[in-house]
Structure formats: C-alpha cells, structure tokens
Design a protein that fits this description.
- The complex is a heterotrimer of chains A (536), B (475) and C (216).
- Chain A is mainly alpha-helical.
- Chain A is built from 21 helices and 2 strands.
- Chain B is mainly alpha-helical.
- Helix content of chain B is 70%, strand content 4%.
- In chain B, the strands form 2 sheets. A 3-stranded antiparallel sheet of chain B has the order 3-4-5. Chain B has a two-stranded antiparallel ribbon with strand order 1-2.
- Helix content of chain C is 75%, strand content 0%.
- Chain C is built from 8 helices and no strands.
- In chain C, helix 1 runs antiparallel to helix 2 and helix 5 (105-132) packs antiparallel against helix 6 (138-157).
- Classes of the chains: A mainly alpha (536), B mainly alpha (475), C mainly alpha (216).
- The interface between A and B is large, with 56 and 56 residues.
C-alpha cells in the first residue's frame, strides 16, 4: 500500500524497483559478507547479514507478482547498430513464479542452517546468496543474451564452488563433465538464435516458433541433464544440505524457466517425439532411483532428473501451466525436503505439506501439474502416471526416515528453523494463487481425464506400498543394470573409440604436413583441393 | 610536421635506440610503454591535417610525406587504426615485463608498430606487402632464441610468408591492368588467382597453416602470441584494402565465394584439428587459425552484394578481445612453462595434470582466455562473436553452422584443458605459486576480459570505426 | 615449340649462369660452392633484369644480391670456417664447411631427377606465360622459372636455416626478373633490395644464433 503511494500510480516503476532491490540485496549481502570477513575474520553476525539480504529479496519479490508483466532495461551494448541485444529483465507469471521460488529457497536454506552450524558457515551463505542472485538474473531474463550471460555466470560460480570444495580428482572430472553439458546448453541457445536468424527472425522468448523451439528444448534438456541422460555426480559436495541444495536447484530453475516458455511453441515433429520418449525414460529411471535411494540427499539428483523430465514432457506437449507446476515442484517440494535435516513430530506436517506439489489434489499446485494428462493420449502418459506415483512414494519414504533431533537446541532455533520451512510453504502458496491460478482450479476441458489420472496415480501409490510391505524389492544387480544402460556409458565409450580413430588420422596428416617435405606436400594437397573445387 | 614522422619514423628511430639500451630492460620497457601510449593518445586527440595546439605551440600535422618518390599518408580516418596499433603494442610490452621474453622484444615491438603503421600509410597501398615482409623478418629474428636451434615452425613461417610476397606484388600489377581494361576476363582470373595464392600463403590458409601450430609448440609462447596477433590482423587489413581499392573485385561473387571457402577451411582446420591436440601451445595456434577463418568469413560476407556492412565493424571490434585473450593465454603458458622447467616435452597435457592446484591464477586465466576466444558469454569475445555468427546466418546458414562447429571443437578442447588442469595424479590442496607480478598482470588481463564481456559499450566502439580506413567498401 | 625466339649471347649466358647456380645451390654440400653459386646467380639475374630496366636500376639488383651473399658468406665463415674435418665432423653443424643435411649418392640422384622434372614442367609452361605476359622476353621467363622452380624444390626438401635462406633468395631472384619487366618503380626496387638484404641478415643471425649465449 505504502509502496503504491510512493510510486504514485506507476506500477511498472514499482515492479522494476522491487525487482532490482531483490537482486541487489542478495548480491550486496554476499559481497558485504566477503568484505567483512576479509577485514574482520572473526565477525559474528554473518548469518544476520545473510538472512537480512535473503528476506529483503524475498519480500521485494512478493509485490512484483501483483503488477505483471513488466520490463526493465538494464544495460544497452553500444554501438546499437552492431550489438543488437540489450540486457533486459522481464517479470511475467512464469519468471516471477520461478524467481519467488528461488528467493524462498535461498531464504529457507539460510534459516534452516541455524541447525547445521557445523556444516554451514558464512561462505556457504554468501555462495547461496550469490547463486540465488544469479538465478534471479536467469529467470527474469527477457532475451537470449541476458539468459546466456546469466547461465554462464551460474555455471562459472557453480564450477568454482565445487572445484574449491572437492578434493578428489575423479569427482572433479565429473564436475567438469557436468559443466560441459551446461555449456553445451548455452551453445545450443546460440544455435537456436542462428536458426531463427536464417529464417530472417530474431529470437524472442515471447514468440518462439517451430524449429527454434526444438533447439531451445534441447538446450534446456542438456543443461538439466535429461538428454542425454546424465547424472552429474552421485557423490554430493561436502556441504550437502545448505549450499549443496542451492547449487543443485538454482541451475535447474534457471533452465526450467526457458523450458516453460517453449511450451507455447510445441509442435508435433519427429524430433519432438524422440525428445518426448527420451524424457519419459529419464523420468521413469529417475523416479525409480529416487524411490530406492538411501535417503533424500542421495536421491536428490534423481529427484531433479525425474521431476524436470516431467516438466520437459509437459512442455513438449505444449502445456505451459503443467510445466511450470512441475518446475516449481522440483525446486520447492524438493527444496523443502532437502533442507529438512531435523525430524520431529511437530515439524513433520510442515515437511509433509511439500507433497502438495506433486499430489493430485484440487486447489493445490499438484493439481496444476496433472493438467498434463489431457489428450492426445499415449502409452507415455501412463508411464508418467507411474513416475508420479513413484515420486510421491519416494518422498514419503524419505520423509519418514529418522534424522537429526531437535532436542537440546536453543529456543531461538526452534523459532528460526521452522520459519525457514514455513517461508518455503508460504511462497509456494503465493505462487499457487498468483502464478498457477488457472491450473489449480477444479475446472477445465479435461477435468474427467485429470481426475482419472489422479486416481490412477494414487492407485499406483497403493500398489507400491503393498509391494513394499510384502518385502518385494528390485534386485541390486537389476538396479545396477538399469543405471548402466541409462547412464549411457556405453555410448560415451563408443564415441571415445571414434575420437581415437580420428585422432590417429589427424596425427598422420599433421606428421606429413609438418615434416621436412611439408611444403611440397602442402602444394600437392592444394592442387588436389583446387581440382576438387573446380569439379564442384 | 608530418604525421608519418611522428608515427613511423620516430618509433623506428626509438626502436634502434632501445636496441642499444636493452641492458636496462625494465626502465626501457616502461619508458617505451609510456611513449607508445602517448602515441596512441596523440592519434586519438590530434586532428591530422589541421592545426594542433600543445600548450603555447601550434603544430600542423601534415597528412602526406614523400619517401623515395612515393607517399606515406596518414589521415584522420587512420586514427582508430593508430590507436589500436600503439595501444596494442603498449599492452604487449606491458606483459613482456613478466613474460621473460628476449631483451630485444621492446625494440622489435616498436619497430613492428612503426612498420605496421607504414603499411597502412604507404601509397600505393600494394607496397604494404613489402613492408609486411620486413615485419616478418623482425618477427623471425625475435622468435629465434640465442643458444637454441631455430624452431622449424619459424623457418616454415619465414618461407611461406616470403613466398606469398611475389604473388601479392604480381597480383597488384595484374589488378592495375584489369582496371584499365575491365573486360579482360583472362586477366581477371589471373589476378584473382594470384591474390588467392598470395593470401593463402600469408594468412596460413589450409594447407599452408602448418607453421602456426609448429611455431606455437616450439617458440616462446608470449612472442608467438604477439606475432600471431598483430601479423594476421595487418594482412587482413591489406586484403580488405584490395577489396576497397578495386570495385570489380568486391562485386565478383566468385571472389566472395573463394574467401568464404578459405574461411570455412580455416574454421574447420582450426576447430576440428584442435580437438585432437594435447599441447597447450598448439591449441593456441589452432585458435588463431580459427579466428583468422571467422574473420575471412566475415570479410567474404561484406563483399557479397547487398551484404551487411556492419560485419566488417564487428570484425574490427574483435581485435581488442583477441589481443587480450592471446596475451592472457600466452602469459599463463609462460607461468605454467616455468613450472615445467627442464621438461623437454613442454606444455603437453600429461605434464600439466593438476597444475591448477599449484598455479590457480594462471590456470584460471588460461581457461578464461580460452573460453573468451570461443565466445563464451560473460567474456570479452562473446558480444562480437555472437553478432558475427548471427551475421553469417543471414548470409548463409551453412557457413554460420560450420563456423559454430569450429568453435564447438575449440570449446571441446578448452573443456579438456580444464579437466587436465584440475585433475592430478596427486590430490594436493590449493596453493598459489605464482609471484606477485604474475598474479597482478594475469588478474588484470582476466578482469579485463570479464569487464569487456559485460560492458562492451565502453571498449569496443572505437575499433568499430576502423571501417573508415576503407571508404569505398560501404558504398 | 619456341619458334621465332632469338637468343642473344648475353642472355644465353645469363640462363646458363642461372641454371648452374640454381642446381649447385640445390645439390652442393659445401657452403663455399653455395656462396659462389649465389654470386653467379645474381650476375645472371642482373643480365636478365637489364633487358627491361636501365643499367643504373638493374645494378641495384646486382649490388643488393652480392651484398646479401657477402653477409651470408661472412656469417658462414664465422661459424663453419674453411676447414673440413672429415665425414663425421661434417654432419655436425658449426664444425665444418659442409652444410647439413649432407647428401649421399642416392640423395644426389634424387635431386637431379627432381630437377629434370622441374625443367620439363618449366618447358611446358613457358609458351603460355609468354602469351599472357606482355613485354616479358623468353629468356626472362626461362631464367625466372628455373630460379623459382629449383628454389621451391630446395625449400621443399629442407628444414635447415641456411638452406631455407638460399632457397628463398633463389625464388625471390626469379620473381624479381619477371617483376622487373612489368614494374619500374624505384621504391619497389628499393624495397625488394631491402627484402633481399633483410633475408640475408636474418640468415646470418640464424646461423649465429645457436652458438650465441644468454637472453639477448
């Protein structure tokens, strides 16, 4: 109200100001923490600094959702006749939803870290804040250039943090592989721009068209590790819950936002169909592994793979709302469980509420998610129902496992820690009513199919519970086999062989051309080339 | 006073003087840097051909200077090129303070800058080829280190550049003939072929590219990067000069195709051959080949009818990031090379495994430079590279995708480099082994790459105006 | 094939000089022969350039060429000396007047064979070139092509610094003969002389560099 008065009826200015504040507060808090640490290494109020930065960001983003859409020009590259792309933020329903989810996640992480004093320290909070700020840049990106810059910054930050914390070479290799696939995604985005330009168009997220959409989906899929199916590294970074959660989920959010936007351009092409099938396999594989994982942290990469695969599936079917719902679920439902290190009967309901993101219950975000069960029907939809049920079962299973107690902790921790969980849930609520408004209502053209799918999903959950109670489990060897097939190690080995063969060929050519008679060979080769060109 | 005296003869004389004072390396280098920056500033501020006031003095900078019956002309439109040359040389001289290059580097750098300016100024511009040949001699002299056998790459470099010279001179004569009788199609073909051969040799176009990786493998990384930065740019300017001078040349669709075929060959050679390299110096060489290729593609697009002239501006804006990238890359190699002292195998992957843990700053800067060179967002190379790719897409989708493939090859090898640097046989902790001067210079370069990547508007516009050197091309 | 071509004695002599010089440079094992060949080569080139240029300007070519030769000779003498210490020593750079790589009998035969191939190629392209280049005489084309062809062959076979310099000087001399017929600029003549001298000085440095010390 006050803000509305202050901005004197100019809602766009207000929205932009709050948007900037949210970003700046996170960056400023992170930088201040680093500077303070350099000047006063024993500074004792780092958490307070981090928390105030995160709260400001989260609170600033709340009013942004009331005045959508809004654009904010940040930097213009000159000369403008050469560099066509300005750096622009855009807040619409999709970006705002992801933005608020990210800010909530960072805040939740910092709040719940009060219980993990041993694991988390100022550097983890500064890292979370920085990654959160970069994540906001990505989700609010209005054009490809802004998104590329944000993606690059996130990838670089993630890479540095991981390499700094991981001492083992074997895991570092996996970090680089993961970084490579992310960078591959960036270059696919550039390729999408090129493809758009060949048709005489400029790539714009508001009007994504046919073949360009495929490239964008592929870029997101590559960054998310869905296609080719790629579990970056199973061994989690040392700071597992705190910074580990942010590191895992911020890059995901930054890619999901584009995925949701591509839903509008979904077309039934053969390339699309292949992507669809691959996403189903990834979703199934991820959900099985999630359900069978030792605990929620071990299962975290599989949760991400599985849920984002469903988001991808929804986008490929052209359902933006479902894609958004699943995307938000991957961050908030997952995030809620991953930061819940304490287990207590009073806290159980709070963490359990996260299930509403994936349960087919009307008026909840989970209901927006099952909107994807609409015609045209195919066998793949059935597989997604099974996937969803496995995700639910996995969530319940991990939630029910024993964890840290809250006995003996100071009283203020009893206030702050649950507040972290409540903030995530509150943010989820706001996103549900402002961002997923139409999706959560018990209306729509395909209400009956949705209800049937929901019932089927619950039914499958029942079956899994029954089977589990009977003591049935998938043999370890089978699980290993599935992992081997889906991890595509065989494909990489084949590609490595091809690489070696090509290397031998290139080395031979190099040896000839760089040897003593190289100039004569070069002349011979040139004559051959000329003859070839003449024929052409 | 003639501008040629200030920007050509004075630096040439200074280069001779510094040659005798090379014993006091650091002081001479610092003074020379100040002088070159001063020359760049003067080029930026002084209006050529008009009155220029310095305190109470007024000087008229004459544009023309007669030399052996020919003219050396420096006009106001040459100012961006002069700023670029002298600032570029100042930058390279700055890096030489920690790069452990030869003492004559300062003199050679100054002489090269003076001769490159002369190449821009000489009329008829055809004679620039001869001046470039003199630059080649200086470069080879710089590359041949005392007490060591000369690198085979340096000899190959000398051979191919010298062989290119006759073709260019002869093409010039043929082109003059074509101007007087434009209907003579035989002569047009001959002239085009001569030019093609000449530039194929000068620009190291496949299969004459071998000297670049050979040189980059054997010679001092910093000196190599200096040579590989300045020389191709000057040769490309000479080539564009031909297109600017002879209207029929840029109107020929075949010429445009030929340039593009050469560009594609270079991009493919640079990008795909790089994938299979295990030597950081050779990778630098292939990166240069790739960059030459993309520049050729852009120039080829300009010559085509109804093409976007802005491609040329974008090509010029690439020169600044490229200099920074090559400088930082080679300086990092010098630091890592110190780590390998005594290892005959040099900068091969197997020798630098895990080097990032002992040399984090050099390793980080090396990766930043490599990523910037492939057009990674957030870094200096990105704005211009992206616009180039998009520009090429407007001209020919196939060419744009080929260019992208070349860069993806280079990206692949960059990621391999990164993996090699962080994975070592022994899992030691992080420690900084670089000295302060290395850290400060590398950090400055790395920071520069990031800053240009985010705020190109503050750094690149000046270079884009280098198109004024070629007034006819935009017509 | 070459009807109507009238060779005067001097031009014929020039071509003979050039052929002898180029072949000697290609197959010579001793730097003294190579230097002598260079001296003769520039005499031949001077005679052929003089057909198109006034004597004063043509002399620039001869003097520049000879100066280049002297620079190289001094450097070679400084490093190798005149003394020949036998076959084993001959293979070691800096110890004898024999330029590595030494050529044995089969190598010699191969060089001669390649020379014959080049000669045939030259003979086949001369008529075409004469048709296309106005104002260039048969002997100029012949002399130039011999130098260019054998110079290229030389460059194609070796990676030894001094041999590369010999090869480049040979190719350039060949080019200058043809170019002189079409371009009469003083600056070009000066710059080309500069290029020759520069190449020779660079060659001298490359000969000395391995035996120098320090970070000069």
């Amino acid at each position: 109200m006050l803000a509305a008065v202050a901005f004197n009826g100019c809602p766009e200015l207000m929205t932009n100001t709050f948007l900037l504040i949210s970003f700046i507060s996170m960056v400023a808090a992170a930088i201040t923490m680093v500077l303070v640490r350099i000047i006063r290494p024993k500074f004792g109020y780092s958490w307070l600094l981090a928390a105030s930065g995160a709260i400001t960001a989260w609170l600033s983003l709340l009013p942004v959702g009331r005045n959508l859409p809004s654009k904010l020009n940040l930097i213009v590259w000159e000369p403008t006749e050469l560099f066509s792309a300005p750096i622009v933020f855009m807040a619409d329903q999709v970006s705002w939803s992801y933005g608020l989810a990210l800010a909530g996640l960072v805040l939740g992480v910092i709040f719940t870290d009060v219980l993990r004093a041993v694991e988390a320290d100022w550097s983890a909070w500064a890292g979370s804040l920085m990654l959160g700020a970069l994540g906001l840049t990505a989700v609010f990106a209005d054009n490809p250039v802004t998104l590329m810059l944000a993606w690059a910054a996130i990838d670089a930050a993630e890479l540095m943090i991981l390499l700094w914390h991981i001492p083992q070479s074997s895991i570092r290799e996996k970090v680089i592989v993961s970084f490579s696939s992310r960078v591959g995604g960036i270059f696919l985005l550039i390729l999408a721009e090129i493809v758009a330009r060949t048709g005489g168009n400029r790539l714009d997220f508001a009007t994504i068209q046919g073949p360009v959409g495929n490239f964008l989906v592929l870029a997101c899929a590559l960054r998310l590790g869905v296609i080719p199916l790629h579990i970056p590294f199973l061994q989690e970074p040392p700071i597992r819950r705190s910074l580990g959660t942010t590191i895992r989920l911020v890059p995901v959010a930054s890619s999901l936002v584009l995925l949701t936007r591509t839903a509008s351009a979904a077309t039934a092409t053969s390339g699309n169909y292949i992507l669809l099938v691959l996403s189903v396999f990834a979703a199934l594989f991820g959900s099985i592994s999630w359900a069978l994982a030792k605990d929620e942290l071990d299962g975290r990469p599989y949760w991400i793979i599985s849920v984002v695969s469903i988001a991808l599936f929804s986008a490929l079917r052209g359902d933006g709302t479902a894609s958004l719902a699943w995307g938000i679920a991957s961050i908030l439902t997952g995030g809620l469980l991953f930061i819940s290190s304490a287990r207590h009967r009073y806290l159980f309901p709070l963490t359990a509420l996260g299930l509403l993101g994936i349960l087919p219950v009307p008026l909840t975000p989970g209901w927006a998610g099952i909107k994807l069960y609409a015609p045209p029907y195919s066998v793949w939809l059935g597989a997604i129902v099974v996937t969803q049920s496995l995700l639910i079962i996995g969530y319940i299973r991990h939630l029910a496992q024993p964890g840290e107690g809250l006995v003996g902790v100071e009283r203020w921790v009893w206030v702050i820690y649950p507040a972290g969980l409540i903030i995530i849930l509150a943010g989820y609520g706001v996103i549900t009513w402002w961002g997923l408004t139409e999706g959560v209502l018990l209306t729509g053209l395909y209400l009956i199919p949705n209800i049937v799918a929901g019932i089927l999903c619950i039914g499958f959950c029942g079956i899994w519970v029954y089977i589990y109670r009977r003591g049935f489990s998938i043999p370890d060897r089978m699980v290993e086999l599935i992992r081997k097939v889906f991890s595509l190690g065989w494909l990489y080995r084949f590609l490595w062989e091809v690489f070696q063969t090509l290397r031998r060929l290139v080395n031979t050519l190099t040896f000839v051309l760089e040897g003593q008679g190289g100039i004569l060979w070069a002349l011979v080769l040139l004559l051959l080339l000329l003859a070839l060109l003449q024929q052409g | 006073m003639s501008s040629a005296i200030i920007w050509i003869l004075f630096p040439l004389a200074l280069s001779v003087i510094t040659l005798f004072l090379r014993k006091w390396e650091k002081i001479v280098t610092i003074i020379t840097i100040i002088v070159t920056i001063g020359l760049a500033w003067l080029a930026w501020q002084a209006p050529m051909g008009e009155l220029f006031r310095v305190g109470t003095f007024t000087i008229t900078l004459e544009e023309s200077y007669n030399f052996l019956g020919r003219r050396l002309e420096l006009q106001a439109t040459d100012a961006p090129a002069l700023v670029f040359i002298y600032l570029g040389v100042a930058f390279w001289l700055g890096g030489s303070l920690v790069a452990k290059v030869r003492r004559i580097f300062v003199s050679a750098g100054l002489a090269v800058s003076a001769l490159l300016t002369a190449a821009i100024a000489v009329e008829p511009f055809l004679y620039a080829a001869l001046i470039i040949e003199l630059v080649v001699f200086i470069c080879v002299g710089l590359l041949a280190e005392p007490g060591k056998q000369i690198a085979p790459g340096a000899l190959r470099f000398l051979t191919l550049q010298t062989l290119g010279l006759p073709f260019i001179l002869f093409a010039g004569w043929l082109l003059a003939g074509v101007e007087s009788s434009p209907e003579d199609s035989v002569r047009i073909v001959q002239a085009s072929l001569m030019l093609a051969f000449g530039f194929a040799l000068l620009l190291a176009i496949f299969p004459f590219h071998t000297w670049i990786p050979m040189l980059a493998e054997d010679a001092h990384p910093y000196t190599v990067a200096f040579v590989l930065y300045l020389l191709p740019i000057e040769i490309i300017l000479l080539g564009i000069g031909f297109l600017d001078q002879y209207s029929w040349l840029r109107d020929q669709i075949e010429v445009s195709r030929l340039i593009q075929v050469a560009g594609v060959l270079m991009v493919v050679t640079g990008g795909l051959f790089a994938i299979f390299q295990n030597h950081l110096g050779r990778i630098l060489g292939f990166a240069v080949i790739l960059e030459i290729g993309v520049t050729l593609l852009a120039v080829g697009a300009v010559t085509k009818q109804q093409a976007d002239f802005s491609m040329l501006s974008i090509t010029f804006t690439q020169f600044l990031p490229r200099g920074l990238e090559l400088g930082v890359w080679s300086l990092s190699l010098v630091v890592l090379n110190g780590y390998l002292e005594g290892n005959v195998d040099g900068l091969r992957f197997r020798n630098i495994q895990g080097a990032a843990r002992r040399f984090p700053i050099a390793s980080l800067c090396l990766v930043i430079a490599q990523l910037s060179l492939v057009g990674f967002p957030l870094l200096a190379g990105f704005p211009a590279h992206r616009e180039l790719w998009l520009g090429l897409a407007s001209v020919s989708p196939l060419i744009a995708i080929t260019a992208m493939l070349g860069y993806i090859g280079m990206l692949f090898v960059t990621l391999r480099t990164m993996a090699v640097l962080v994975m070592g046989p022994t899992e030691t902790g992080w420690q900084i082994s670089e000295n302060w001067s290395q850290i400060s210079l590398l950090a400055l370069g790395g920071l520069g790459i990031v800053l240009i990547g985010i705020f190109p508007q503050f750094f690149l516009p000046l270079l884009s105006t280098m198109t004024e050197l070629f007034p006819n091309l935009g017509l | 094939m070459f009807n109507g071509i009238d060779l005067d004695l001097l031009s014929l002599l020039a071509i003979i000089f050039i052929v002898i010089a180029a072949v000697t440079l290609l197959i010579s094992r001793d730097w003294r022969f190579s230097i002598a060949a260079l001296v003769i080569q520039y005499v031949g080139a001077y005679i052929l350039v003089k057909i198109s240029w006034p004597v004063q300007m043509a002399l620039v070519k001869l003097i520049a060429g000879w100066f280049s030769t002297i620079v190289l000779a001094m450097a070679l003498f400084g490093v190798f000396g005149f003394k020949i210490d036998g076959e084993e020593q001959a293979m070691r750079q800096g110890r004898s007047s024999i330029l590595p790589p030494s050529t044995n009998v089969s190598g010699l035969l191969f060089h001669i064979l390649a020379t014959v191939v080049i000669a045939l190629a030259i003979l086949s392209v001369i008529p075409d070139l004469l048709n296309q280049l106005d104002g260039v005489t048969f002997e100029q084309v012949m002399g130039a092509l011999v130098l260019i062809g054998l110079g290229l062959l030389h460059l194609g076979f070796t990676a030894h610094p001094i041999r590369v310099i010999f090869g480049l000087l040979t190719v350039l001399a060949g080019f200058e003969i043809i170019y002189a017929a079409v371009e009469l600029s003083t600056l070009v003549a000066g710059l080309l002389a500069g290029v020759n001298l520069g190449l020779a000085m660079l060659g001298a440095y490359l000969i000395y560099a391995p035996s120098m010390e320090g970070r000069e």
